[in-house]
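RECORD TYPE: inverse folding
INPUT: structure tokens
STRUCTURE:
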């Protein structure tokens, strides 16, 4: 037995050291990335970056940082109770300068499958409770928060804008434990929202399903957000829904590469049930 331990232990330690070294290299890559930064307004910046070797894969990341202290009153949710619309259409209808797709929705009948409230009015209720939708984004003119859904009675909350989605990725600066399942563990395009310690809201999209952008697992997305400064973060609907809108940045205002048309361009938008946006 002792001989077996002496054989296995060095290999195990080497395996652990390899993982830690890879994580350190990935974190350094994100933190030191020469992001292409484009100011949208004072306190609103769109950042884009491509990685040839992040999590041993090619990654294309776009995100917008919004100074909450300056724009808290103008960060909102827009939703339709039944009709699905492209993120860009939702954005145009609400005079948005920045927008991201929101939560999960009913692809057949329209509307969100999880709780959504806009302007103090419930738009959709939860069709069926799931482990996936375990986090809430809550917005008001005085506060912004991302919380575990189990930590607050959000349906009775005074917050006028609330979106239930998930999973919760980061809480109090720590990565959350995630269930092992294909949704979490396979690489897909991803969308997420985060709040940082220095009072910024991050709206982020990671492209995927392309040789130039392979997408992320949710644990990889959580790490990326934490390295970008997230204190609290939650996943949004991803896959073909992942869309980031920045008014005037491109011909159709979409800055990432939505995957529904299977082409690495800005044209493959999918219709969704709601968005998070800056007016």
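DESIGNED SEQUENCE:
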């Amino acid at each position: 037995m002792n001989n077996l331990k002496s054989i296995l232990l060095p290999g195990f330690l080497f395996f652990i050291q390899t993982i830690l070294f890879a994580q350190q290299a990935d974190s350094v890559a994100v933190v030191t990335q020469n992001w292409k930064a484009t100011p949208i307004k004072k306190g609103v910046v769109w950042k884009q970056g491509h990685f040839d070797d992040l999590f041993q894969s090619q990654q294309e990341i776009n995100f917008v940082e919004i100074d909450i202290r300056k724009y808290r009153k103008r960060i909102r949710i827009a939703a339709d109770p039944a009709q699905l619309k492209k993120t860009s259409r939702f954005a145009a209808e609400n005079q948005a300068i920045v927008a991201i797709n929101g939560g999960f929705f009913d692809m057949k009948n329209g509307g969100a499958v999880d709780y959504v409230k806009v302007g103090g009015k419930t738009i959709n209720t939860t069709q069926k409770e799931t482990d996936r939708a375990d986090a809430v984004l809550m917005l008001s003119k005085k506060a912004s928060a991302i919380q575990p859904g189990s930590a607050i009675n959000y349906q009775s909350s005074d917050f006028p804008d609330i979106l239930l989605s998930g999973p919760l990725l980061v809480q109090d600066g720590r990565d959350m434990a995630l269930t092992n399942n294909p949704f979490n563990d396979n690489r897909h395009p991803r969308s997420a929202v985060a709040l940082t310690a220095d009072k910024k809201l991050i709206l982020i999209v990671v492209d995927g399903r392309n040789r130039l952008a392979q997408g992320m697992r949710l644990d990889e997305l959580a790490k990326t957000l934490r390295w970008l400064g997230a204190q609290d973060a939650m996943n949004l609907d991803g896959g073909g829904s992942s869309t980031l809108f920045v008014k005037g940045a491109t011909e159709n205002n979409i800055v990432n590469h939505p995957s529904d048309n299977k082409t690495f361009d800005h044209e493959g938008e999918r219709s969704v049930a709601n968005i998070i946006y800056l007016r």
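NOTES: Residues 13-17 have pLDDT under 50 and may be disordered.
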